[in-house]
Each structure stands twice: as structure tokens, then as C-alpha cells.
Amino acid sequence: MATLADIGVAAAINILSAFAFLLAFAILRLQPINDRVYFPKWYLKGVRSSPTHSGAFVQKFVNLEWRSYLRFLGWMPAALKMPEPELIDHAGLDSAVYLRIYLIGLKIFVPIAILAFAVLVPVNWTNSTLENLKVVYSDIDKLSISNIPKGSQRFWAHLVMAYVFSFWTCYVLLKEYGIIASMRLHFLASEKRRPDQFTVLVRNVPPDPDESISELVEHFFLVNHRDHYLTHQVVYNANKLAKLVEEKKNMQNWLDYYQLKYDRNPSKRPTRKTGFLGLCGKKVDAIEFYTSEIERLSKEEATEREKVKKNPKSVMPVAFVSFRTRWGAAVCAQTQQTRNPTLWLTKWAPEPRDVYWKNLPIPFVSLTVRRLIIAVAFFFLTFFFMIPIAFVQSLANIEGIEKAVPFLKHIIEVHIIKSFIQGFLPGIALKIFLIFLPTILMLMSKFEGFISLSALERRSASKYYLFLLVNVFLGSIIAGTAFEQLDTFIHQSATEIPKTIGVSIPMKATFFITYIMVDGWAGIAGEILRLKPLIIYHLKNFFLVKTEKDREEAMDPGSVDFGSSEPQIQLYFLLGLVYAVVTPFLLPFIIIFFGLAYVVFRHQEAMMKDTVEQAREPNLDLKAYLLNAYIHPVFKDGEDDDNFSIGEEQEYDNTLVPTKRQSRRNTPAHSKCDGSSSPPQL
Fold it and tell me: Compositionally biased, Polar residues: which spans (predicted)?
């Protein structure tokens, strides 16, 4: 059972860790060589120039201005001073709303903590129930509701405070909902137009013996949405082609690396081995090897490209259909298209950069089966993860450790080591066990067949939160209670066990406090260091960068990992609201997390920028703008993702032409399938 001393040791360790991360960030961000790592969006916007282009040689890499180190925490007030409209313009609405979640946490829990410490802590502390029950407890537990005797009138204080806390939480959420809704409406009214505002995704297009998928889609929407249909783009199964393109790109990177290496030292030709990962096999000239590999892949790519374009089986029963107005797209996306509810299924199309192209070729009929398989797999993953959770809880049980490794008893009983084990080790062990979980859940979500990156993130986030709820919250409580009260369980009747568990549940607040400090305090402070982008940028800059364009591509503005960060926030809200009444001592640790996270994430240039359109275009050729918006990236051949226009087609008039289907009536408009049923000629 962790005591106040154990919590103090854990707090000291995590505070020192957080301070070390912040100090390292404050120093690293001042070095000219790291400027592009910590200010990438300013470079991409063209408002910041590299400090390595001027000054003495040493000053290009190290900041020798000693006065700047005296202001190493100056980034904090600077981050807090940026007005919210400027933040939205710079980092996007998603970033601003994400930041407000942390602000909501502060608005909810600061007043709750004040009330809880003013009312509930004195009520809990002035009792001796735990001493009379003869259960294992600590001084922290005496501050909890477990110290109130059964049937005491003091429970009225907890009941009243529970209602007060609930009403306050609902009030804050209602006010914030109104603020965010207003922000979203204002953003939508002033933002740049996007192809997804005019486009719907159509799935499960039924096969027709007389017409191709493209012709069928065009005729269907000309009949059913004649006044609003504009153009469409069918979907090709280009997954194999995409793999070849990616492999060729990887080979090109290696060729550039070895060519650069040779240019630096022309007296020696670089070599590599032809076996697995270049570790074994015959030694050959590296430049010649990668040149031949690129030539081979180029031929395979050209062959596969022609195969995709000419093979009708490469066309999937899926299409992106664009309309002349947002209203027309909204009507189509939200209505049933035919009597058969399983055909011609429509939904809003994701933004082109948000499309996860690998999943579009998955047959619609297999999605239900895939999601059933993942549901079963997720159940067993959650269930079997109880084993490491039980192990983590056993770490907090000193007696259990001493029985398992009796020869370490004298070392474990040393006060500082005992405090470290009980106050810090369980939290860090649980954090380690959870490291690879978001990646596993993302792979499971991809297998389910979701067709946008944002949908994949939301699905992964929902799984992760359920996992945290079942294993980290409920699992830790049940397993921890069983370990701590094992002796009591053995020597009491079965009817008394639920009562013992009920008394012991608030005592697990000590474990969650250590977890919050490890995951929340040190974890959030480590986020601002951007260690992974820092290392990757310098590796690319040293080995691959040859031009300014290469250097820009090496920069990574970064983004919030929604699939793991949002469930983490939900868990902290859950812990705060659950323990606000039963163990108020946990609340200050929650508040520190939300405050630190708000400052850190406000500083991070966290999302891809959604620029606000400054000028309207009354003569916009909407069809040219939308025509190639949803072409698979492998067919764009290096086009800018934002450059969707491919030509000028101004004619929108509809005329009547016969369809190829003999049993159907005439459909309006001349077929333009030649321009939308195949990729652009490359």
C-alpha cells in the first residue's frame, strides 16, 4: 500500500523528469541547427528564414548568445498570448478545439477541487473507520470516503457534493458546446472551399452486363439527380501499383544516399550486399545495384499501370460523385437512393488527403464479417491483457514481491527503494505495457475497412478508451484490491467480500495518482521535446538532403496522435469525476496534468493548416476543380495535392442520349466516361 512518502518519491521523480524534458527543449530550441525541427510551420509558411545561412561557422550550429539562455522559459507566455482566432488561422480549427478540451478540464476540476478540499476532506479525515475494520490502508486512504462509517449522517455531504459536481460538469460542457459550435459555424462560413463539400462516396454499385461501372454511375445520377450532378470518378484497385511506387521511391532514396556519399569521396565507390537487409550475400557496387533495381521497378510499374487502366476488373463498384452545389451533395449523402437499401449506398466523401486508398477496394459485403472478426479479437485482447495488469498490481504489493524473491527482502525494505517500488514502479510498468497498444488497435481498425484516416483514428480511439476503461480502470481496481486485501478475503465469509471490495476501491487512488504522474506529467513534458522528429530530421539532413526542397520535405510539423491522446484525456476525466467524491486527494494531480498539457499543446504547431479563403471566385470552373480531386495518388505522378484542376470544361447543359441498356429508358446528358472512367494519360 503506497503511503504519502511513496507518493512524494514518485512526485519528485516525475517532477524532475518533466523539468529535465522542459529544460532540454528550452536549450535545444535555441540552437540554429534545430530551428527547422521546432518551427517547421513557420518555414512552410515562408515567414521564417534559417539562422544557419549567416554568421560564423560555429554560430550556424550553436547559439552563442548567452542572454537568450536566460529567457529559456520565454516560450510559455508566448504560447499563451496567441489569440484563438490567430491560432485557428495558423494551426486549424481542430487544433483549437483540441486545446479547449484541456481548458475544459481546468474549468471543471479546479472549482471541484476547491469544494472537495473545503468540505469532503475534513469530513473524511475526522473518522477512524479504517482502523476499526482492520484492513490495509495508508494516510491517503484516511482522506477518502472509505473512512466514513456505515450509516453515518456524514454521507449526506458526499451525496450533496456528488450532485453539485455533476451539475457543474454539465453546465461547463453545455457552455463549451455552444462556444465550439459557434467557432465551427464561423470557420465553415469563412474557410476555403474543399472538394469533399461537393462530393459523396457511392458504394456497392450493382454490376450491369451492358455498361461499365463509370457509365452506370453517370447514367444513374443523371436520372436521379439531374439538376445537381456534375461529375464522378470511379475507384481503381491500385494497391499493387501503390506498393511498386513506394518501393521505387525507397530505392531512389537509397540511390540518392549512395550517390551523395560517392560525391563526397570520389576515390571510393560505395558497396552493399545483395542479401537480407544488406547484411549478407554478394557484395556489389551500391550505385549500380540501386540503379538496376529502379529500372526493374520502373518497368513493373509501367506494366501494372497499363493493366490497371485497361482491365475492367480493376474498377471497383465504388465512385466519388461530385455535385454543383453543397446542397445537392448533402441531399444525396443523406438519402436512400433505391428501394434496395443495400445498393447505391451514399455517404459524405472524406477530404482527398484523408482518403485511405488501400481500403476502398475491399468489397462492401465483407465489411460486416471483418468487423465481427475484429470485435472477437478485441474481446480476447482485452481479456488476456488482464494478465500484465495483474502483474503491474502485484508490483505495488511489497509482501508479494518479498515472497517471490525472498533474497531481495533486505534491499526492498530500504525506505527509498520501497517508496520507489510502491510509488513509481507500477505506473511506469503499466505505461510500458501500453506502448504498442495504439499501433495494434490501428492495424485492427484498418482491417475493418474504414476508408478515411480520420475514421481510422476515431475507431482506434474508441477501442483504446474501452481498453483503458476495462483494463486500466476496472482491472486495476479489481486486481489491486484482490492483492492488497488477500489475507482479509481468505479469513472472512463470502458475504463480506463485496463489502471489503467496496471499502478498498477508493484506496486504489494511490495507484492512479502514480499513473497520472508518469503518463501525464512526464509524458506530456516529453511531448514538447519532439525527440523522434528531432532525430529523424537530422538523419535525413545529414544523409539525404541535397536541396532546399529536400530539406523542406525532411521537416515534419507533426500532429496530435488522436488515437491515443484523446482516450488518455477521457480516462483522466473519468478518474477525476469518479474520485472527486470518494478520494479528493487525486484532484490536484489531474489539475496539474490539464494545466501542463494545455501549455505544451498550445505551443506545438499541431495540425496541418486549414487556411481561410481571403477572396471569392465568382467565375470558378467548379467541374474542372472537382474532376480529378479523387484520383488515386499513384495516378497523379507528383502533382500537388491541392492542384485538382486538369482542364477547362464549361458545358453543363444536359441533352438526351440513349443508354446502352436496352431495357431502360433514355437518360439525359452525353456520356463523358472517357474523361472520368480511366486515370489521366501519363
Answer: 665-682
